[in-house]
Design brief:
418 residues; 7-stranded parallel β-sheet; 4-stranded parallel β-sheet; 15 helices
Length: 418
């Protein structure tokens, strides 16, 4: 296959489809979303059969447990994909929304209109649900999308793509509005991230090495996060029952996700009351604990943490723990080691909660809740196309609004400038 010719064709088709999507009605887009959601459930057996091929190949090739978990499609995950599409269909259409319209002294009215970005290229690993989520969000926000999944999910992604194309056809929208790259040749990625004429933004989802490569080599703007080193800080005023519940859930609800807790910070005055109970629950779940000297003194089975542990996104049943002297030291640790993804404080003190919210510079900052809620579906976005730790153009879970831009509109009645 001539990769350059193939990708250039895909790009031209996407650009043409984007022009059509920009003027598609909200009703047409919602019709497509409902049809795709129905097709996913109807084709569940086919999806799981194709996914089984990918899982078998992944196991044979020695794919890590965390990546196999991300790759797997279950009835529950297929239902979640379908639910996400239905939720997106129920959200207001952002395209064409006019805000901030006001009169100037000259008599003209100036405002802003929300518009699609155009063509979005998405590069991702393992998670086949990204194919449905990304297609749905791009479709609803009026963007054409080019999806390049990992080779380990080829069969799963193509099966989902067939459901997507069925929904687009049912709504009378061009199938080229969503194109899933059919080749596993890595040269396709290299071409995609340099197609400045046909692609407006690239969103990579996957391991740190993939995202670092895309960021370094792309000639198209990138929305990204490199890793998810997330923290929970248990403040001295915390309700112990809440603290144990939040810290346990944040680590063990699912290991292989970017919003999973990796470092637990515990205020010194409450450490003896919290850590032995938490440690027993973690051990029962098979979580390996690595801690500072003070932590190891309270938890005999805890291994001594190294400097590298504070800098590591484990994506595994491993947790680093540090006892700190107050909120200022906790924030200083987060500032030094966080990837600016998600941090949470457990506290009953309003002032310290507000300090944490103000001073912690991450894309999601939480009070008395698990970091696992840092997710587009949980935030009511319907789904997410990724989580951005950048400050421009979008930050945090990227949903519909993050996939649009704004242009100034000016209304007059024959006004001329003096």
């Amino acid at each position: 296959m001539d990769i350059k010719h193939y990708m250039d064709t895909v790009g031209r088709q996407a650009r043409q489809a984007a022009r059509g999507l920009a003027k598609a009605t909200g009703q047409a887009k919602n019709t497509a979303l409902h049809a795709i959601a129905a097709a996913l459930l109807r084709e569940q057996a086919v999806l799981m059969a194709d996914n089984a091929k990918d899982l078998a190949a992944g196991q044979k090739n020695g794919l890590e447990a965390a990546l196999l978990d991300r790759l797997a499609l279950t009835p529950a995950r297929i239902q979640t994909m379908s639910d996400g599409l239905q939720q997106i269909a129920g959200l207001p259409d952002p395209v064409g929304e006019i805000t901030d319209l006001h009169y100037q002294a000259s008599g003209i009215q100036v405002g802003k209109m929300r518009v699609p970005l155009g063509v979005i290229g998405i590069i991702y690993e393992s998670r086949p649900n990204v194919t449905a989520d990304a297609a749905a969000l791009c479709l609803k926000s009026g963007n054409a999308t080019i999806l390049r999944g990992g080779s380990e999910a080829l069969h799963s992604n193509q099966a989902i793509a067939r459901c997507i194309h069925h929904g687009l056809a049912e709504a009378g929208l061009p199938e080229t509005a969503v194109q899933v790259i059919e080749t596993t040749d890595r040269a396709a990625v290299g071409r995609l991230i340099t197609m400045q004429e046909d692609v407006d933004v690239i969103i990579p989802r996957g391991g740190k090495s993939l995202i670092a490569r895309i960021s370094a080599e792309a000639k198209v703007p990138v929305i990204k996060h490199l890793d998810g080193i997330c923290h929970v800080f248990i403040d001295r005023s915390a309700d112990i029952e809440k603290a144990v519940s939040v810290a346990f859930n944040a680590k063990t609800q699912r290991y292989g996700t970017c919003n999973t807790l990796e470092t637990l910070l515990v205020d010194a005055p409450i450490a003896a009351a919290v850590l032995p109970t938490l440690a027993a629950q973690y051990r029962a779940k098979g979580v390996e604990l690595r801690g500072c000297a003070a932590t190891c003194a309270l938890i005999p089975a805890c291994q001594t943490a190294t400097e590298a542990d504070w800098q590591t996104e484990y994506l595994a049943p491993i947790l680093s723990i540090r006892i700190v002297d107050g909120i200022d030291q906790a924030i200083a640790h987060i500032d030094a080691y966080s990837s600016n993804h998600t941090e949470s404080i457990v506290t009953q003190d309003y002032t310290r909660a507000q300090q944490f919210l103000r001073e912690v510079d991450s894309s999601s900052v939480m009070v008395n809740t698990s970091t696992r809620f840092a997710d587009g579906f949980e935030y009511g976005l319907g789904a997410e196309i990724g989580i951005s730790t950048d400050k421009l153009h979008a930050r945090g879970p990227v949903g519909l609004e993050g996939l649009t831009s704004q242009k100034f509109i000016v209304l007059g009645d024959g006004h001329i400038r003096a």
